[in-house]
Each structure stands twice: as structure tokens, then as C-alpha cells.
Specification:
It contains 18 helices and 17 strands. By secondary structure, it is α/β, with parallel strands linked by helices. It folds into 2 domains: 155 residues, Rossmann fold (3-Layer(aba) Sandwich); 264 residues, tm_1862 like domain (pyruvate-formate lyase- activating enzyme, Alpha-Beta Horseshoe). The strands form 4 sheets. It has a 7-stranded mixed sheet with strand order 2-1-3-4-5-6-7, with helices on both faces. A 6-stranded parallel sheet has the order 10-13-14-15-16-17. Strands 8-9 form a two-stranded antiparallel sheet. Helix 10 links the parallel strand 14 and strand 15. Helix 13 runs parallel beside helix 15 and helix 15 packs antiparallel against helix 16. The chain is globular, with a radius of gyration of 23 Å. Bound molecules: cobalamin and iron/sulfur cluster (SF4). Iron/sulfur cluster binds next to loops.
């Protein structure tokens, strides 16, 4: 059967960035790979790098009987619109949606759209069963891990157990033009070459699930049980990526790459044993940092690490069930710097009940620690999370809304005693101060500090369009061909 898989257009503040625009949708391509293994003819369209005309053309020429869309909740409007376009063009094709959006609220997703099925959780086994039923017009009502429509109402079936990761094929990267996705990641790696060859990087994952329960995090796809691919499976994929696409830089997108130290040790030993000439980035968690392990990781090519820190106030960290101490954050960031990594820190402002004081604690911590990069966002409750339920109980979000529309149009305020405008101003202040405090700044510290303190003046000039003012200054810098300070 002909099956078309589609990724919607990712709208991001960093739309042109080397990182986000070029993220290989490994989840959708795994779904593609298992469908191919099951004998289907699969094509893939990525609306993040191509346009609607290309999709329309594909629909007309390829005439899929099943269209699969993968997306996050923030892409809700685009998914519904996309499904409607597919239905209009091919009224007899069935439409299935998977990814975080489908697991977060399958009922709303199905009942508000022309979508026929939602796949909950991991997609590999469920999609093969569903495709078989669609092809042979069999009853779908007993398929585990789907939601479907009966007389306009959604029926949600029981979920199925976890996928056996060792059995998974590699994502079907042959369906995409990898050259369009390969990234240099120059900002993170701070080096243009690996073993004399220009950097050619891509993303992949090795694990699924997370044992923590931070209230703002959506874990409806992979759940609490942490699982990891066998080391050899991952090393084989890295060799395959090197041989097939010349990949020598890896972006591990796992939530916590170093959760299991024994696994990381084996991985690092394997990289050395196979003499893989790669450098890599991974995400970690401050309470897992281990100087000995960091040293091994560095030897095996790790050059960049990111920590989701979120808040710099202990009471707020405790309220969000982060299970992390401010002291652990400090220790871990210094340890990562000492190991030689490029260190990124992610922060959030505006948790439920936050005050100006607690937000300032976060900004102070971010500015104090020796980060090389990072950023701040306003806390937005995502459907399917504990935070969303808490916010809905207090009437701060509509219980049936998808919340944030996309990364450029959020407007959430869960704080106490702060207006949205004040929160937004704090966000800009945080970004500005952080930028000028970054460890990688080349200009003398006293100049950075003076510019950093100039925020009130710049905000007074730029006001609500502070970002616009900063962009203008940045384009002047670019026109003068000056490097980033
Ligand atoms: C890498 C990443 C990104 C990258 C790229 C994302 C992309 N898809 O292009 C970047 C940095 C751009 C990004 C941005 C954002 N992200 Co993000 N991201 C991730 C991360 C860490 C890994 C994604 C991944 O590769 N997973 C591995 C693959 C194998 O899993 P998967 O894609 O889910 O696919 C499986 C199933 O979902 C399913 N499946 C997926 N698609 C399909 C399609 C069909 C047809 C079927 C049947 C099945 C199916 O089968 C797959 C295999 O089992 C996840 C966390 C995580 N652990 O997954 C968060 C996550 C997806 N991101 C999240 C969020 C909130 C965001 C942002 C909104 C953050 C923000 N506030 O700005 C933005 C939104 C950007 C946008 N869409 O406009 C949430 C989404 C929650 C939700 N309900 O939507 C997650 C789950 C993090 C979390 N735990 O809260 N993200
Ligand atoms: S934020 Fe990170 S540590 Fe917390 S639950 Fe989500 S994946 Fe786990």
C-alpha cells in the first residue's frame, strides 16, 4: 500500500538556525522504516523544508491510501489544516496522526478534525498493525495503542507495551535528502573540523522514557521507564552514518543521555575501540554529573553538553518536582566546564505563583555560572502535563485549549503579582544579561558588564520592540562584518 508520511512546518524563533530547521525527524522516519519492512511503499514530505505545492503534487502523483502526520501539540492548527487539505485532495485516503500531539489529547484531536486515527505512544508496532487493517479493510477496533472515531466520537483503546529498541531498524533516512539536513553545529562545537574533515552533523536518539516527574514535562509518549538501545546497535548506526553520509558530529537528543553510567562507559569504550572519529553533544541532568564520567565522555568525543535547569530558586524547583538542588546545579556546571565541554543552560521564567524575586534568582544564577550558551522561555503549560491540569484548575488556561500556539506566539502568565508585560520585560532582561555574561565572550568583562547594565536604557529606547532593536543592532554588526562579541 502507498503511505505518505508528513512532518508539519516547525515555526520557531530560530527558524533559520542551523540546528532546528535541520533536525531529522527520526520518530517519523522510524515509522517509515518499519512500514517499509512490512512491505509498504513509503514516501516522506517535510513541510519544514519544502512547501505545500510539493505536498499537493505528491498527493496527486503518489495517491497514498494512508497519510501519516507526526507533530507536537503546538502544531495543532497546522495539523488540522493539513489533514483537511489531504482529505479534500484524496477523500478516500485514511489519515493518522502520531507524535506528542496524539498522545497528549487524542479525543480532542480526533473530534475537532477530519483525522481518522491517533497513535498513542511509540508508533512502530501500532502503525504496522493499523496499516494492515487499512489496506485489507479490516476492523481496527481491537488495535492497541490507537484512538479512532465511531459516529463522530473518539474511542481510545488501551496502550501497548514498550517497543523492543534493539529490534528497531535505523530511521529511513534514505527517504530524505540528507544533504539538506546535515548541520555544521558550529555554535555548539566551536570547531570547524573533526580529524581534518569539515563537520557534518546530524541528530539521533539512543534512549526513551524518563524516571523523573517534572510537572511541566509531557511524558505521554515514552512514559517513566527509561530504556536504552544496546551500545553495539548505536555504534553500528554511527558507523553507518559515517559511511553513508560522511557524518562526523552527533547531536544526541535524548532527555538524559548519561542516566545510566555503565551504559555511557561502555559507549565511550566502544567509540574508542572502533576508533570512531566523531564529536558529539548530549543533554544531561545536573544531579547526574560525574567528573570521572565527563572525562571519559570528553575522550570519546563529547564536546558539548546541555542542562535543563529551568529555575534558580530552590522553592520553585521543589514545587515543580525537579528533584534538583541549586548547589547541584552550580557544582555540575563548573564540573562540565572543567571537563572541557561547551556548556548550555536552559531556563524558564514564570512558573505558577512565581514572583519577581524568584524570577530574579533564576536570572542571577544563569548570569553567575560559566555558561557558553543557553536561553530563557516563559513557562507555558502543555496539554497532557500536571502543570496544565494545575493551571486549568485555577482558570489560568482553558481546559480544552492546546495552550501555546507556537514558539513565537506564546502568551502565558502563571505568576503572582506580575502582569504579562512585566513578565515579558523580565524575559528580555534575562536574555540580554545572559548574552553579555556568557563565558565565550571575547570582549573584556567590564565592557560586557556595562553593556549588560544598559538594559533599562535600551528598553526605554526599544520598548515593547526591544527584540526588534536588538535585531537591528545585530544586522548593523553583520553588515560591518564584525564577529559576535
Ligand atoms: C529534539 C526535540 C525538539 C527539536 C526538534 C523537534 C522536531 N520534531 O522537529 C526542537 C529543538 C526544534 C524542538 C522544539 C520544540 N519542542 Co521539542 N523535543 C525534542 C525531543 C527532545 C526529542 C524528539 C525526538 O527525536 N524523539 C525521539 C523520537 C523517536 O520520538 P518521537 O518523535 O516522539 O516519535 C515516536 C512517537 O512519537 C511516534 N510518532 C511520531 N510521529 C509519528 C507519526 C505517525 C504517523 C505515527 C503513527 C507515530 C509517530 O512514533 C515514534 C517512534 O516510536 C522531545 C523529547 C523526547 N524525548 O522525545 C521534545 C518534545 C517533542 N518537544 C516538546 C516541546 C514542547 C517543544 C517546543 C514547543 C518547546 C518550546 N517551548 O519552544 C518546541 C516546538 C517546536 C515546534 N514544533 O514548532 C515536547 C512536546 C510535548 C507536546 N505535547 O507537544 C517534548 C515531548 C518534550 C517534553 N517532554 O515535553 N524539540
Ligand atoms: S524535564 Fe527532563 S528530567 Fe524532568 S521529567 Fe522531563 S525528561 Fe525527565
Amino acid at each position: 500500500m502507498n503511505i505518505l508520511l508528513v512532518r508539519t512546518k516547525i515555526i520557531s524563533q530560530r527558524i533559520a538556525s542551523d540546528y532546528e530547521g535541520r533536525f531529522v525527524p527520526v520518530g517519523l522516519l522510524l515509522v517509515a522504516a518499519v512500514l517499509e519492512q512490512a512491505g509498504h511503499l513509503v514516501e516522506f514530505t517535510d513541510l519544514s523544508i519544502t512547501d505545500m505545492q510539493t505536498l499537493q503534487h505528491r498527493l496527486s502523483v503518489f495517491k497514498p491510501q494512508l497519510v501519516g502526520i507526526g507533530a507536537m501539540s503546538v502544531e495543532y492548527e497546522r495539523v488540522v489544516e493539513l489533514a483537511a487539505i489531504c482529505r479534500e485532495k484524496l477523500p478516500h485516503a485514511e489519515i493518522v496522526v502520531g507524535g506528542p500531539i496524539a498522545s497528549a489529547n487524542p479525543v480532542k484531536l480526533l473530534e475537532d478534525s477530519v483525522i481518522d486515527y491517533a497513535v498513542l505512544g511509540e508508533g512502530e508496532e501500532t502503525i504496522v498493525e493499523l496499516a494492515d487493517c487499512v489496506e485489507h479493510k479490516k476492523d481496527v477496533s481491537a488495535i492497541r495503542g490507537i484512538a479512532f472515531k465511531r459516529e463522530g466520537r473518539a474511542v481510545v483503546n488501551k496502550r501497548r507495551g514498550n517497543v523492543e529498541l534493539a529490534q528497531n531498524p535505523y530511521p529511513a533516512r534514505h527517504l530524505i535528502d540528507m544533504e539538506k539536513y546535515i548541520s555544521t553545529y558550529t555554535e555548539r562545537f566551536q570547531q570547524p573540523q573533526v580529524a581534518g574533515r569539515p563537520i557534518r552533523g546530524t541528530n539521533l536518539t539512543v534512549s526513551r522514557g524518563c524516571p523523573y516527574s517534572c510537572i511541566y514535562c509531557d511524558k505521554n509518549v515514552f512514559g517513566n521507564k527509561w530504556r536504552v538501545r544496546p551500545v553495539a546497535h548505536v555504534l553500528d548506526e554511527i558507523e553507518h552514518l559515517g559511511g553513508e553520509y560522511g557524518i562526523n558530529a552527533l547531536m544526541f537528543d535524548d532527555d538524559i543521555f548519561d542516566l545510566n553510567k555503565a551504559w555511557v562507559r561502555d559507549f565511550c569504550a566502544g567509540v574508542k575501540k572502533r576508533q570512531l572519529k566523531v564529536i558529539w553533544h548530549c543533554n544531561s541532568r545536573c544531579n547526574h554529573s560525574d567528573a570521572g564520567l565527563f572525562a571519559l565522555m570528553y575522550e570519546a568525543g563529547c564536546r558539548s553538553i546541555a542542562f535543563g535547569i529551568e529555575y534558580g530558586n530552590q522553592a520553585v524547583l521543589d514545587r515543580v518536582k525537579k528533584k534538583l538542588k541549586v548547589a547541584e546545579i552550580e557544582r555540575s556546571v563548573y564540573m562540565a566546564k572543567a571537563a572541557g565541554f561547551f556548556v548550555t543552560g536552559y531556563f524558564m521564567l514564570g512558573m505558577l505563583d512565581e514572583t519577581r524575586e524568584t524570577i530574579n534568582d533564576t536570572i542571577k544564577l544563569a548570569v553567575k555560572l560559566p555558561f557558553d550558551a543557553g536561553g530563557f522561555g516563559i513557562t507555558v503549560p502543555m496539554m497532557g502535563t500536571e502543570l496544565f491540569r494545575l493551571a486549568a484548575d485555577r482558570g489560568l488556561v482553558e481546559p480544552d485549549s492546546w495552550g501555546q500556539k507556537d514558539r513565537t506566539r506564546y502568551r502565558s502568565n502563571l505568576t503572582k503579582n506580575l502582569s504579562y508585560e512585566e513578565l515579558d520585560k523580565l524575559l528580555r532582561l534575562a536574555g540580554w544579561k545572559f548574552f553579555w555574561s556568557r563565558e565565550s565572550r571575547k570582549t573584556p568583562k567590564f565592557i560586557n558588564r556595562t553593556i549588560s547594565e544598559s538594559f533599562p536604557l535600551l528598553y526605554w529606547i526599544g520598548g515593547g520592540d526591544f527584540q526588534g532593536l536588538v535585531s537591528k543592532l545585530n544586522s548593523i554588526r553583520r553588515n560591518l562584518r564584525l564577529p559576535l562579541p
